[in-house]
Design goal:
This protein is of the alpha+beta class and 153 residues long. It has one domain. The chain is built from three helices and ten strands; from the N terminus they run βββββααββββαβ.
Length: 153
Amino acid sequence: MEYGHCPKCNAQALYSSASAPVGRLNRIHRAGIVTYVVCSECGYTEGYLLNPFERDHVRDEWAIVKEVNNETFEKYPVLDVSMQENTCPACGGHNIRQSVNTDALMIAQGLVASLTHYVCLDCGSVERYVLSEGDRDAIAQYWARADRPPART
Ligand SMILES: [Zn+2]
Ligand SMILES: [Zn+2]
């Protein structure tokens, strides 16, 4: 069976937290449960709000992105690069910082991966990576293979 390819390293190695019950712990405040898709090859991580009711909640409660941001994204197409290469896919800038402290990403009951954030200081765009190979092995073991974007389960 064909699964999705990683947009960063092109490996067909994407895994989704939708298959893990602890996905409930991976939440965004006043939005809902984030389903993460992790590439077990390079660690690139994307998050999705799959539940349409949760997206309704965001529509009602969150602010609209300012027009100036939309103009930025119309001017610059999303580039086929990774922030790990010190280039921002959103604006092409080279002013990238990597988080020194990591955030927790729940893999399974009692099993937590370290999530490293990259931020572009020019436009504010954020990328996430699971940098530990051990964490990525655990994700491949506990999560099901996935497409990008993942199907709702
Ligand atoms: Zn990858
Ligand atoms: Zn940028």
